[in-house]
Amino acid sequence: MPMIPINASMTSSISILKRTNDLFDLTQQRVASGKKVFNSTDDSARYRLSENLLGRNRQLDSINNNVSLGLATLETTDNTLKQMLGLVQSALTLISKAQNEGSNGVRATTSTAALDPTSVVTGVTVGSVFSITSDSGRTFNYTFNSTTVTWGEIANALNASNIGVMADFVPGPIAGTSNLRFRSINDEDFTFNPNTDQNVMDDLAGLTSPNGQVFNAANLFANGVAAPGAGETGFTVSYGGHITGAAGAGVTLATAIPAGSSIVFEDGNGQFRTINYGAATTVGQFITDITTMGAGVRAELVNQSGGAGGPLQLRLRNTNGGNMNIVGASGAFAPAGVLGYPGIVTGFAATLSQNYALRLAYGQQYDAIIENLDSLAQNNPVPDGRNLLQGENVSVMLDEFSGNPIRLAGVMLNAAGYLTMSQPGASWANDTFLQNSATQARQAETILLQLQAQFATFNNYIRTRYDLNKTYMSEAKTQGDEIVASDPTEESASLLALQTRQQFAVQAVSIGNEVQQSLLRLLG
C-alpha cells in the first residue's frame, strides 16, 4: 500500500504541540517549585550568583555552629563563676561571724586528744566512775555498766544532768578531727573528782587549768574501781584567783597550825575576813572553818605538781571568780610558816578562755566552701569539653573569611592558688590567721568579679557577631532564592495561555489526522 506523506500543515501542528507540551511542563515545574532558573543552562549568570549567595549562607551557618559553642562555653562559665562568687560571699559571712565569736570568754578546758562522739572510753571496767563537781555544789557521777561506752554517751549524760558543766566536741587543729571540751555554763569553776577512774582520764590528755595544776591522770585519780589514794586529789579547772602553798614536804589534814597563827583575807564577796587561832589547831580544822564561812572562798588540799603521792599543798581560791587577796598573815600563814604561804599577796583571777569552738566550727564550713570552689572549677559543665577554668583555651571563628579567630584564654582556677584562699579555717583559733582568711576571701571576690567582667566582654562581642551572622545568613538565603525565583503571577498566566495553546494544537493535529484518513479512504 503506498505511503501518504504528512503535509506541511500536519508537520507544523505536531511541532507546535511538542513545543507547547515542553513549555507547559517547564512552566508547571516553575509554578510548583517557585524557581525560574534550575541550573546553569537556564541562566548561567543568575545561577552562579545564586549559588554563591546560598553557599555563603551555608558557610555562615557552619560558622555560627562554632560560635554558638563558644557562647555556650562562656555562658556556662559565667554561671559557674556566679556560683563561686556566691560561695566566696558566704565565706566572708562565716569569717565575720567567727570574728564576732572570738570575743566571748568561757570557763573551759579542752583535751588535745582526737575524740569524737563515737570514740570508746578505753581501759575501763564495769563499775569504773567518771565524776565532776561544779563549785555550785552539784555533782555528776557516771558509773560504767559496760566496756564499750562512748564519749558521746558520757557527754549526753553530763549535759542532761544540769550541774552547770557541759561537754561538747569542738573542731580540732587538724581538719576533720575534733576534741572534747568541758565548759562551765553557770560561771562557776569545776573539778574532775579523784574517785574518777584514771583510765577514763587517760583519754583526756592535754587538759590544763589557769591555776597551774599539772594534769597527770595516774597521780590525780583513782586506779580503776579502788578508792583514791591520799595524793590523788583530782583536777580543778579554776579561773578565780588562788594562792597555793609551797611547803617543801607538803601538808596533810593533820598538819599542825601553831597558836598565834592568823590570816586576814578578802572573801569572794569583797568583805575582809580574819581567822585568828589563839590555840594550836590543824589544817583540817582551818579548811572546815573556811567552808563554814560560805563566803566565796574555798580551802582545799591539792596535788598541785601532779607528782606521785603529791606532795599536797593548801590552796585558797576565790570561787566567785575574783582575785584572792591575803592582806595579813602570821604564824603558819606567814612566809616562813609551815604552810609555805608567800605572806601578803594577791592571786589574780585568770582571763577567761577564748571560745574558739564556734569559731572553729565556722572554720570547718569555710574549709568545705574551699573544697566546693575547687570542685566547681574542675567540673565546669562546658559543652565542648574546653574548660576555661582549668587553663584550657577556646578559639572562636567569627566569619567565613578564615581570618584570625578570637582566642579565649583560660585560667587555672583553684581556691588556694588563683583565688589566694590558702589560709584554712582550721587555723581560726589564731586571730592573725582569721584575718588572713578575711583578706584572702575579699581578694578572691575581686578576682571572680574581674573574671566575670572579662568573659562578659567576650560574650557581648561574640553575641553581636553571632546575631550579625544570622542576619547575613537570612539575607544571603533570601537573595540567593530571589535571583532564581519565578514570578508566580507571570508563570500562572503563562501556564493558562499554554493550556489554551495546547488545546488548539491538539485540535489542529486531530483535524489533520482526519483529513489524511479521508484521503486514504478515497484512494482505497
Secondary structure blueprint with pairings:
Elements (H helix, E strand, L loop, with lengths): L7 H26 L10 H58 L3 E2 L1 E3 L18 E6 L4 E5 L7 H11 L3 E7 L6 E7 L5 E3 L5 H5 L14 H4 L14 E3 L4 E3 L11 E2 L3 E6 L5 E6 L3 E2 H11 L3 E6 L10 E6 L5 E7 L14 E3 L5 E2 L1 H23 L15 E3 L9 E3 L22 H53 L4 H36 L1
Antiparallel strand pairs: 1-18, 2-6, 3-4, 3-7, 5-6, 7-8, 9-15, 10-13, 11-12, 11-16, 14-15, 16-17, 19-20
Write structural notes for this entry.
By secondary structure, the protein is α+β, with helices and mostly antiparallel strands. The chain folds into four domains: 1-34 and 486-524; 59-101 and 357-479, f41 fragment of flagellin, N-terminal domain (Up-down Bundle); 105-237, no CATH class; 239-354, Alpha-Beta Plaits. It is 43% helix and 16% strand. The chain has nine helices and 20 strands. The chain has a four-stranded antiparallel beta sheet, with helices on one face. It has a four-stranded antiparallel beta sheet with strand order 12-11-16-17, with no helix packed on it. A three-stranded antiparallel beta sheet has the order 2-6-5. It is rod-shaped and about 180 Å long. 33% of the residues are buried. The model is unreliable at 1-5 (pLDDT under 50).
